[in-house]
Design goal:
176 residues; mainly alpha; disordered C terminus
Length: 176
């Protein structure tokens, strides 16, 4: 206990020195106006991304036959009350139940969604970079998250359905 307190005290005493040392080489700071502008830009793009997600969700539901929609509702309801839901098994079950034309429509809708989302992220990145003051370091052309997503294999239609429909329930209508 005393050693951890001593280590914490030492770390806190060095913190102001390192902060002062970093101040001399730090890029220009954002003004409150720039911060507000960037926050508004981010919120605008977040709302657009939510619209894309809603569009994907609608396309998925439209691709399903009424029978498959009922089966899906029953399956998602069972997952919601299961104390240990097996999402992978549920995705496989959905995939097996889908007709080939439903599966293809879902995969196409998801591919379009991913393309539009990447374009939206690039637009946001460019716009926010333009809002930064001169002397601030540039952001990379692609986030690690987007690069990792591009390297993952294509999800199955069942996985897409499950993610698109249950993610909306978990996050709420505004990304919660």
């Amino acid at each position: 206990m005393n050693k951890s307190f001593l280590a914490l005290a030492l770390a806190l005493s060095v913190l102001p020195i390192t902060a002062v040392a970093q101040d001399t080489n730090s890029p220009p700071q954002l003004t409150d106006q720039q911060k507000q502008t960037m926050r508004a830009t981010f919120e605008r793009y977040r709302a657009q991304e939510e619209q894309l997600h809603q569009q994907l969700r609608s396309q998925i539901l439209a691709a399903l036959s009424p029978v498959h929609r009922r089966e899906l509702a029953s399956l998602i309801g069972a997952l919601a009350i299961d104390s240990n839901p097996d999402l992978q098994a549920a995705a496989i079950r959905i995939d097996r139940a889908l007709a080939s034309n439903e599966r293809q429509q879902i995969l196409t809708a998801h591919q379009n969604y991913e393309t539009q989302k990447r374009q939206l992220h690039e637009q946001m990145r460019t716009e926010m970079q333009n809002e930064l003051p001169a002397g601030r370091p540039n952001w990379s052309n692609g986030s690690r998250h987007e690069q990792a997503a591009a390297q993952r294999r294509q999800p199955t239609a069942g996985t897409i359905v499950l993610m698109a429909l249950t993610l909306h329930m978990q996050l709420g209508p505004h990304g919660g």
